[in-house]
Structure formats: C-alpha cells, structure tokens
Amino acid sequence: MIEKSAFGSIQIKGKRFTTDILIYPDGRIVENWWRRHGHQLAFEDLEKLVSTEPEVIVIGTGVYGRMQPEPGLEKALKTRGITLLMDVTAEAVAHFNRLRTSRRTGAGFHLTC
Fold it and tell me: Within 10 Å of residue 56's Cβ, how many Cβ atoms?
C-alpha cells in the first residue's frame, strides 16, 4: 500500500522513495525508473512490467500531470489484456491502493512535474 505521496517523493511500507518508481504485481519496487523520452511514456518503458502479465497498469503522471502516453500505448496494452489507468500522481495512488488487492496490478509513478 502506498501511504503518501508529495512532490518528489512517495512512501511505501514506511520507505520513502525520491526517484520515479515501478511497482510490480508481486510487490517488488524498482527505483530510478527512467523513460526513453522523460515526459512521454512509451511501450518500451513498460516492457519488463508488461512481461509480468498484470491486469492493470496504473501510471502516476506527476503532480501536474506532465507525463503523457505515446500514441498507441493504450491500444498496445489492451491487445495484451492490460488496462491502462493514467492520472495525476495523487489520484493514481488512490487507484493503485484500491485495485492492488482485487486485481493483478502494476504501476509506475513519476514523482515530480
């Protein structure tokens, strides 16, 4: 469960992260999530997460929602049976916390803009 988030940080199980992160359906957290084009989310940025076959991927697009999906990303995930939910980070945290116990859920969180 994600306990809190703020500009530049997110807290999970008492640990504070200050870099963008990926969360795998098994609960593993990978720090320093780097994307090919920073504020543009591409399929290749999610390939390792997709390989774990989540039902849902929740993406926190930043405090101000600056990160956007590349054209075709949602369709590419949908063809693999994965629902993509993208929202500003605070709302994405709420989505993740709500879904994580009922569906196989992965996530990525952009922590700044």
Answer: 20
